[in-house]
Design a protein that fits this description.
With 590 residues, this protein is α+β, with helices and mostly antiparallel strands. The protein contains 24 helices and 16 strands. A 5-stranded mixed sheet has the order 12-14-13-15-16, with no helix packed on it. Strands 6-7-3-10 form a 4-stranded antiparallel sheet, with no helix packed on it. The chain has a 4-stranded antiparallel sheet with strand order 5-4-9-11, with no helix packed on it. The termini are far apart.
Length: 590
């Protein structure tokens, strides 16, 4: 009996060993499908819709809430499609076998003109226990051809210079020239052109002397000024494109800015009537022998002022300018790029030409009022001098200069004058003088308290002043960056990365710091990112290498890296970006 029991036990042990060995071998031989084997996706245009089909292998399911359809190029547009009914699987809504979704073309082509890219996002798991990484499949379709104005409308709001350069490389020369003229007209509506209006107006007034300027002469002066400005932008853009250099950086040298600021101060005091700026009489007599003095007087000076305005007062870098520079750099087509830049600058100058026409047609007869107008333009010239010096002086000192300018203007306007002459229109002037005095005093008190912003002079006294110019995100140091250091910090980040390239002399960079970055909507989005600020003021070899590495020209430029640490050139932004637009742009970056 005992022997029989031993035999049975040995047989059971042998059988169990065989079965478990076979089961273990089966486990070892089990092979999970690759993502391409587990999920097959197709998207085909049929009639007036795109038919998409997601085929899922056996024993694999896709979560309903992970399945998303989106247009990702030329811009991001989530698609609200009708998905089939899902079923329950361990408490989750899932799909198995096959998922077919039809996307009406009208849903896409009402938002996008031209070619577009459809992306399908999903996440799935095997019943045997493995879950796949999130998957995205992309499909490119040829859409309805965009009309001229559709293309212009799309690019007008484009902040990515690379995309503008791509358009330059794919469109006809005639379209490119027309496009850049429209860009110029749009730039004319930005603050870039505003500082040039008082400069040109003061030139017209000073050249008229005590006479009313004729419309022809005023328009000719404006034309000389605008053409000089246009030629400057053209030459700078073409040279920068061919040489890959930021020419404007040289014009932001502290010595250069100081000299030009002094020129504006000298011009201001001339407008105040303290002296008259002009060529020596011997030079004037020689000039008059070669051309009609009435027509040639001031042409050279006007052209020089147009040249200086383009380099000093103009924007740091506008996306159209950067796009043209990048196009010239890539293709070497300096002729087309130069013509495009010239036409853009002439479009920018349209309001200035209207100033010239208006000065000759709508200005009243000569009189004592012209001295007042000259004085107003003199104050504007002093403001422009402070504006330029702000790029190289400490913020607190700049605030004091602005305070002195407003207080001095108020005193000049007779803020404390109680004479009986302050009647009628002069009462409004007195009211404006009081406002200038109060604002100037506010700036002075703010500067003494350590404030740095003209918009927030009492920032140090109010709780709301916190964070006005400081971006409260994971921000790294901005000194001494090289390409190698930047990439190391990008690779060390477990978040998407924002890199902001700026410099002290860049007005648009300051606007980003004061207006865009502190905005609550932007701050909310920036918490998902690592924020790196790089200062290019020194224009060192490392700074130039950074710009060359990412094909950037000038500042401000903002570039992005994804969670996978890969550079995203299609997301780059150039120039000032309003808070709402920047927050939306950040939201679209995964």
């Amino acid at each position: 009996m005992r022997n029989n029991f031993k035999m049975l036990l040995l047989a059971s042990l042998f059988l169990s060993t065989f079965l478990f060995a076979d089961f273990g071998s089966a486990l070892k031989k089990q092979k999970f499908l690759s993502p391409d084997e587990a999920f097959q996706v197709t998207a085909v245009k049929k009639g007036d819709a795109i038919e998409t089909k997601l085929t899922i292998a056996d024993s694999i399911h896709v979560y309903e809430d992970s399945l998303k359809y989106e247009i990702t190029k030329p811009k991001t547009i989530p698609l609200n499609v009708t998905k089939p009914q899902s079923h329950d699987f361990d408490g989750d809504k899932v799909y198995e076998k096959e998922v077919s979704v039809f996307i009406p073309l009208s849903m896409i082509e009402s938002e996008v003109k031209g070619d577009y890219t459809l992306s399908i996002w999903f996440e799935g798991c095997s019943d045997n226990g493995i879950c796949y990484q999130p998957i995205v499949k992309t499909f490119t379709f040829k859409g309805a051809d965009a009309g001229v104005f559709d293309k212009i409308s799309s690019l007008a709001n484009e902040g990515n210079t690379a995309k503008i350069a791509d358009v330059l490389g794919s469109e006809s020369a005639l379209f490119i020239i027309f496009l850049f003229f429209i860009f110029g007209l749009l730039l004319a509506l930005t603050p870039c052109v505003f500082p040039m209006v008082p400069i040109l107006s003061s030139i017209i007034v000073s050249q008229a002397g005590n006479e009313k300027p004729s419309m022809v002469k005023a328009f000719f002066t404006s034309l000389v000024y605008v053409v000089a400005m246009a030629l400057t932008y053209t030459v700078v853009g073409v040279v920068a494109g061919l040489l890959g250099a930021d020419i404007q950086a040289a014009m932001q040298n502290p010595w250069v800015l100081t000299v030009f600021a002094a020129m504006f101060v000298a011009l201001a005091f001339s407008l105040f009537g303290y002296y008259e700026i002009g060529l020596p009489s011997s030079w004037q007599s020689k000039i008059s022998k070669t051309s009609d003095n009435a027509q040639s007087k001031g042409i050279l000076g006007t052209a020089i002022m147009g040249f200086l305005s383009a380099l000093i007062v103009g924007p740091c870098v506008a996306p159209p300018l950067g796009g043209a520079v990048l196009f010239i750099s890539h293709t070497g087509d300096a002729l087309l790029g130069g013509v495009a830049l010239f036409v853009m600058s002439m479009g920018m100058g349209v309001p200035l030409l209207l100033v010239g026409i208006g000065a000759g047609k709508f200005m009243p007869k000569p009189g004592g009022w012209m001295m007042r107008v000259s004085q107003v333009f003199g104050v504007m010239m002093l403001g422009l001098a402070v504006f330029m010096l702000a790029r190289i002086l400490p913020d607190s000192l700049t605030l004091i200069l602005w305070a002195l300018l407003f207080i001095g203007s108020a005193l000049y306007m007779g803020v404390f004058d109680s004479s009986s002459e302050s009647q009628g229109m002069m009462k409004l002037v007195k009211l404006l003088a009081v406002i200038f005095m109060l604002y100037g005093a506010s700036l002075f008190v703010g500067a003494m308290s350590g404030a740095t912003s003209m918009l927030h002079p009492f920032a140090k006294f109010t709780a709301g002043g916190k964070g006005v110019t400081i971006v409260e995100v994971d921000q790294n140091s901005h000194l001494g960056y090289s390409v190698e250091r930047l990439m190391k910090e990008v690779e060390a980040s477990d978040k998407p990365v924002v890199v902001d390239f700026g410099k002290d002399s860049c007005t648009a960079c300051t606007e980003l710091e004061v207006i865009t970055f502190p905005d609550a909507r932007v701050q909310k989005q920036l918490k998902r990112f690592t924020f790196i600020k790089i200062d290019l003021t020194a224009n060192s070899d490392e700074d130039k290498a950074l710009l060359k590495e990412f094909e950037l020209f000038g500042t401000p430029n903002i570039i992005f890296f994804g969670k996978d640490n890969k550079y995203m050139p299609e997301k780059s932004l150039t120039g000032f970006i309003p808070p709402k637009k920047f927050a939306k742009h950040l939201k679209d970056i995964k």
